[in-house]
């Protein structure tokens, strides 16, 4: 846009100056021609009448004209020349005649700045009237250039008005074109943003053409492929976790029965104990997997009810009383006021709290603390769960919500979970229409803040 403006200015400024010098030269030329014509007429008819006519003509032209004799004494002049002006003219003529004789003044014309004139200066010009015997006298003209200046100023105004319209038109064209060009890109940007956040069911239909259209088609087919891929992955997880449940139940049940059987060796009992424990773990993993895939498929319904959350939480925590004392961890529950009510699905919120609590228990050393804090703000209720455990390194923070992501990558670690807990928590909080934030300092502890809308 500014380029357009600069172009217009770059056009207007030279025009102004070119037109000025064009008019100036034009007027000077005209004045000189007039003087030389007068001189020729006078030489052809050297009489008082000729002089009278010349003066009359110049009177009509509204210029100041003086005829000097060879002694530089004024012989005839137009009206309206004040004595003061006449003196100035005489001084100028005398000066220049001397300069002409000395050979230092070549022209016959000069530009003279007059006081109180805004436009180009006056043009003063003189012309020697000479015949074969020498100089007979001099003719002098003072031409005001004002009236010649006027059309020039008008022309400049026209030019500026035209520039203004060109500018406006250019600006509108620029807006229109840039919108036409960028609109499809903006739409595609929004769509790819959605794709990046996991919404693959986008439909692109921009008004782009050519390469922009090709790009759009590529993005569309990429989104379609991603959608197919993610669907088949979900289906696979859902099927496999479903189909694994029955065999695991059998293994679990029979190993449990067998290990309590009398008459088997101690060694066999230990083996069966291991089978029983591991099948329990496997069951938990498969259950998590099954639940997560159902959540991802959007097959989980939520049934919220208004719940007085503090008593509800303390009841939940009572079940962990033994675990706390066994692990030598203290637990506290505080609320900024009693009877804070919030709309939630008790079963699913139970799972959220349990998953977070079990993480805290798992990653906090003996002597540590786990605290629950409830508060209400505007139309939201927040639950803050903090522990004084080992914390999560900063570089792992964004990934702990991913399924199977665990900070401690060694899968063999006995006390490790499935790595699905936080992924499930996140989905469940989303399902509640709330949000969960995480902050953690390695070696100091971890804090999760769940915020739910009071009335879901
Ligand atoms: N309270 C916590 N303190 C320290 N690390 C945690 C805490 N909660 C979660 N983490 C880290 O986040 C990872 C993912 O958690 P999660 O999805 O529940 O998987 P899992 O508990 O099965 O390992 C854990 O492996 C652990 O490294
Ligand atoms: Mg966990």
List the helices and strands and how they pair.
Layout: H1 2-44, H2 48-60, E1 64-69, E2 74-77, H3 83-102, E3 109-112, E4 122-131, E5 134-143, H4 146-196, H5 211-259, H6 266-296, E6 305-308, H7 309-318, H8 321-327, E7 330-335, E8 341-344, H9 346-362, E9 369-377, E10 380-387, H10 421-431, E11 435-441, E12 445-453
Parallel strand pairs: 7-9
Antiparallel strand pairs: 1-2, 1-5, 3-4, 4-5, 6-8, 9-10, 10-12, 11-12
Helix pairs in contact: 1-4, 4-5, 5-6, 6-10, 9-10
The structure holds adenosine-5'-diphosphate and magnesium ion (MG).
Bound compounds: adenosine-5'-diphosphate, magnesium ion
N-C termini distance = 50 Å
Q: What is the chain-wise order of helices and strands?
A: HHEEHEEEHHHEHHEEHEEHEE
The biggest sheet amounts to: 5 strands, antiparallel
Main location: membrane
Domain Histidine kinase: 239-456
Membrane topology: Multi-pass membrane protein
Transmembrane segments: 155-177
